[in-house]
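User: I'm curious whether this sequence folds into something compact or stays loose and floppy. Could you predict its structure so I can see for myself?
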Amino acid sequence: MNLAKESFYTLIFQLSGLVCATVGGVIIARTLGPSSKGIIAVALLYPSLFFTTFNLTIGLGIIHHMGKRQYDVREFAGSALIMLITMSLLSLAVFFVTIGPFRETLYKGIETRYLIIAGISLPFYLMLYYFSSILQGDMDIRGYNIGNQLSSFSNLFFVLIFIALWRFSALEAVIAGISGIVLGGLFSLFKTIKRTGGVSFNKELTSRIVKDGAKIHIGAIATFMFTQANIFILNYYAKPSEVGFYSVAFSIANILFFFSVSLEIGLYPKMAHATMEEAVELVQVATRQILLITALAALIMAAFSKYIVLIYGGEAFLPSVTPLILLLPGVVMLVIPKILSTLWVRKGWFLPLTFVATGTAVLSLILNLALIPEFGAKGAAIATTMTYALSSFIGLFLFWKYVNRDMSGLFVPRRQDFMMYRDIFRSPFKRKLN
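Assistant: Here's the prediction. I'll summarize afterward.
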C-alpha cells in the first residue's frame, strides 16, 4: 500500500476519532460550563506532562532502528517491556511525591481525587506509546490507529454511560478522559505480543534506542512545553473559566492537525525504509499537499468561528472565538516543521532537533509569562502562534541550508499530487468491479 492510500485510510480513522472527541467535548462543555471545563483540561494534562518527561522518547528510536531491519521485532517488544516497567515505577513515584510541595503552584485548584485518577493512567500512557510505536514501525498502521483512537471512542462512550446512569460532574469527565488511554495501552500491548509471538530481551538494542531517544528527549519535553505549558500558566494566573475558554479554542484549532497527523503516522516508517533521495521527495509532496489542505480548512474555520464555538459550547464559550482566530495562523504554519521533522529523524538529527525545540520552548515560556497575566486566554493564543511561527521558520531554514535551496517543492502543488487522490478514490470502485 502506498503512502497516499495509507494516509487516506488513516484519515478515516482520524476523522472517526475526531467526531467522537468533538461530540464528547461538546457534551462536557455544555454540561459543565467554562470553569469545570478548565479544571478538567488541567487535570488531564498532568499525566501527559509526566508521560512526556519519563517516556525517554524511545518511540522514534524504535521506528528508526526497525527501518534498518537489524533486529527481530520480538527484541523491540522486549525492550519496550523493560522500559515500561522501569519508567512506570519512576514516573508514578515522582508524580505522587510532588503533589504535596507543589499543591499551590503546579496543582493549583485541582482536587486530590482528580490527581489520583490522573496518576493511575501514567503506566498506560507509556504502554500505548511504546507498543504502538512498534506497530507503527512494523507498518501495522491499522493496529496503530485503533490503539491511538480508542481514547476518543472510549471517552465518548463513558461520558454517555455516566450521563445515562447517574449525575455527570468533573470527576466522571476525568475518569472518561483516561479510560481510552487505559484501553488503548492494553490493546497495543496485546496486539504487539500477538503479532510478535512473544518477547526477546536484547541489551544492546535497548541501549541503542535509549541512547537515540535521549538525544531528542529534551527536545520532546521542550515541544510539550511550547505547545501545552500555557495551560499551566493560565491556571496559575487566571480564572478557571479562562482556562476553559482557551482549552475550547485550542481543541477546535487542533482539529486542523488531523490532516498532517494522518499523513505523519504512515510517513515516519516510510521514511525509515526509504533512501535519502526518496525521503526528500516524499517530504516535499507531503508538505505541499497538507499545507494547502490545512490552510483552506483554517480559512473556513475562521469564517465560521463564532458558529463553531456556539455549536461546541454554547453562548457561555463565546469568549473562545478570539483565541481561536488568533491560533489558526500558527496551526497552519506548524504543519511545515511537523512534516519536515520526519526527514530530520530519517537523517538521525536527534541532537539538532533538541536544540531547536529547547530554544523555541524558552521563547514560548517568556511570551506566555509576559502575555497571559494581562490578556488571559488571548495572550496564550498569541504566544502560541508566535512560537509556532518561529518553529516553522527554523524548519524552512534547515531545509534550505542542508537539503535543497529550491523550496518551491514544499509549497507549489504539482500535477502528480492530484493524480494520487484520483487513484485513491478510484481504487475502491476498481476492487468492487474486479
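Summary: Residues 3-426 form one domain. The two ends are 18 Å apart (CA to CA).
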